[in-house]
Design a protein that fits this description.
The protein has no helices and 11 strands. Strand 5 and strand 6 form a beta hairpin. The strands form 2 sheets. Strands 2, 4, 5, 6, 9, 10 and 11 form a 7-stranded mixed sheet that branches. It has a 4-stranded antiparallel sheet with strand order 1-3-8-7, with no helix packed on it. The chain is globular, with a radius of gyration of 14 Å.
């Protein structure tokens, strides 16, 4: 089974930057670069929304969020990790953030429906 573990959340002040990290352990026999990766977020009572995704090599990134200029996703295929940097944090960024992985052949768009493996989520709380 693929294991996905997020870290780096917490309470931050508006205007600051924050980097979330995620480590992904592939299933036996698979490699880390067999997976596309993504970051999603969810506020209670709302649908999970895509924030940023990256393809297997890191060469292609996808930012479906309307405020895309504040987000940067990057992956390290040596360390089996993916990071999400969020700049100029706003109170409306407060949410549970989820890291997710999916086999490359299944990845079509930065939407939760394309992702098979999920972390438990990490809370980011932005104070004004």
């Amino acid at each position: 089974q693929v294991q996905v573990v997020e870290s780096g959340g917490g309470l931050v002040q508006a205007g600051e930057s924050l980097t979330l990290s995620c480590t992904v352990t592939p299933k036996p026999g698979a490699n880390f670069d067999d997976y596309a990766l993504g970051w999603f977020r969810q506020v209670s009572g709302k649908e999970r929304e895509g924030v940023a995704c990256v393809n297997w090599s890191g060469g292609n990134t996808y930012y479906p969020h309307s405020d895309k200029a504040r987000f940067t996703i990057s992956r390290d295929n040596v360390k089996n990790s993916v990071a999400l940097q969020i700049r100029r944090l706003k109170p409306e960024d407060t949410a549970m953030y989820y890291c997710a992985a999916t086999p490359t052949y299944k990845f079509d768009y930065c939407s939760a429906s394309f992702f098979d493996y999920w972390g438990q989520g990490i809370l980011v709380n932005v104070s004004s």
